[in-house]
């Protein structure tokens, strides 16, 4: 893989749990040399436990309130705390990994450097306009196949890199509860661009993005009524991903999926999560036809404008379906305001 | 470096899946020695061999295989004047095999494709995987990040809409190639030594609205669902273009599958592609295609079929009209091709009077 410039990257970790010792120790070989932003869930009472030897800045509720005001810190509660890190970062690339994940091993037994793989994905073009059957054409040992139009071989800028998970995959509660023993053991050795207009569920567990390109599009917006501290009880990343993909499609950027893998550990109880009323399911059903038919105006050329237009459409078309959508739309508008105020004072 | 599998000693499974419902179509101009290696996996199935080139030559078929063979004389005899739609001196002639088959499924493979090994060293039964792909639903309306959700050990990920988890019928299974990759001539010339050694352990549905380059080397499809759209065009002798037969079919079937709500999968199985064709010869064949492609792709990307087109034949005939309307300006070849598309459907319907498609 090509050498990456560590100064262009911030690794943002959302601390939903206080003890980050095991997590950070396991990632030390791959996090060392990078600047880390650790954001503490404002609802977490305990002190964070962070091992020495990292170049890290920690942000807690008080820091959030200083930057965005007391009334807005609730926007960053739970898993959404990481978005505060996205907001205040000054780097080009962000890499974010959930704190229940450790480095995975590839089929040869080597630990996967997820950070490098993500940044490599982001630095190389994406190819959303035509599907390459050999997947990433820019990787060593591969290329565009016969029949791939030459005019499309330059690709477009890559906005996001969505990684995957071995062991505990990002399945929803009903699926995991049904298949309690199921573990993901298949290492699919590919990076591919998700085609234009194709929708997908983007998981926040192992993700990276080009902050300079699409930062404001990663919106901490959709909050489930019973949102909890395990991924089975959230949908914020999936909603964020739907917005991000739609805006990327609109602006001519690409979204990649595939490598790198992380190894995700056991946390929480799928059956327990199932007991909660799973409104996420209903919200997704309503979101799909909305995004499918949505057309952002051609005049929306900046990411911020796209988010505002998207929020407008959400309020108009989905607001009456569920209060969660109205709140999401409001949060999206607020997010752009915060983004502009924080990032224009440079 | 990667090697083909050694299949000596693998027993033939006489209870092979779908052995009475699937035909294997093989175009050939030289010999069928490669079938010896495929014997354990393919012998239970019926072969349709389409012999291209000189019809007076005898093609030896390894013993034990049940087959029917058609050379150019047979094609002319069976189709009469309609034989003009079947290419001569090009593997595109294989689509005659699709037309003449009476089975529900087709597997087509090139005669320089051997059995591949998976990363554990095991011989890959490509046909078995194709059948799995075809019998399992596709998911073209929403991309699953864990790829094929119906595969053992996988599933739909969090956030995947429940209403879309039933999937749709799979019309096409597009397999890949280890060793010699399917590159175009310019790429072959620039990277003559590149070999595909990467075994990507996934099957995925190509999303609705997305086009792809369909390679005919290792391909299977549901003939009842999509057969009439699998016309491999006018290539080879007397035509200005070659090596775009499968590409053309791929663009047509994808537009039609998207319109009819059918799925197209790509990924596993791999075969081992042993022969690299001559890049200079390929360049001459592909030359016009490289330029024409730039107009053809936008044409297919924006092609819209009417609500009234509900059968594959209807879709295909509409498509042929659009080709005539929009692509003839590029070259008179497309005018001929549009006519050939109509002839193909007429011939298909004649040979398949009770087709449900």
Which spans of chain A have pLDDT < 50 for at least 5 consecutive residues?
none
* Topology of chain A as a string of helices (H) and strands (E): EHEEHHEEHEHEEHHEHHHH
Radius of gyration of chain A: 19 Å
What general outline of chain B do the C-alpha atoms trace? globular
- Oligomeric composition of the shown chains: heterodimer
Structural class of chain B: alpha/beta
Tell me the strand percentage band of chain A. Answer: 15-25%
Number of helical segments of chain B?
10
User: Over the alpha carbons, how many angstroms does the gyration radius of chain B reach?
Assistant: 20 Å
User: What series of H and E elements makes up the topology of chain B?
Assistant: EHEEHHEEHEHEEHHEHHH
Task: Specify the biggest β-sheet of chain A.
Answer: 9 strands, mixed
Give the structural class of chain A: alpha/beta
Model regions low in confidence, pLDDT < 50 over at least 5 residues of chain B: none
Average of per-residue pLDDT values of chain B: 95
How far apart, in Å, are the first and last alpha carbons of chain B? 43 Å
Number of strands of chain B: 9
Q: Characterize the main sheet of chain B.
A: 9 strands, mixed
Most extensive interface, chain pair and sizes: A-B, 57 and 59 residues
Helix content of chain B: 25-40%
Kindly list the characteristics that best describe this protein:
heterodimer; A: 346 residues; alpha/beta; 11 helices; 35% helix; B: 357 residues; 9-stranded mixed β-sheet; RGP_fam (chain A); UDP-arabinopyranose mutase (chain A); EC 5.4.99.30 (chain A)
Explained architecture:
The complex is a heterodimer of chains A (346) and B (357). With 346 residues, chain A is α/β, with parallel strands linked by helices. Chain A has 11 helices and 9 strands. In chain A, strands 1, 2, 3, 4, 5, 6, 7, 8 and 9 form a 9-stranded mixed sheet that branches. The longest helix of chain A is centred in the C-terminal third of the chain and has 22 residues. The mean pLDDT of chain A is 94. Chain B is of the alpha/beta class. The longest helix of chain B is centred in the last third of the chain and has 24 residues. In chain B, helix 1 links the parallel strand 1 and strand 2. The interface between A and B is large, with 57 and 59 residues. Chain B: Probable UDP-L-arabinose mutase involved in the biosynthesis of cell wall non-cellulosic polysaccharides. Chain B: It catalyses: UDP-beta-L-arabinofuranose = UDP-beta-L-arabinopyranose. Chain B: Belongs to the RGP family. Chain B: It comes from Microthlaspi erraticum.
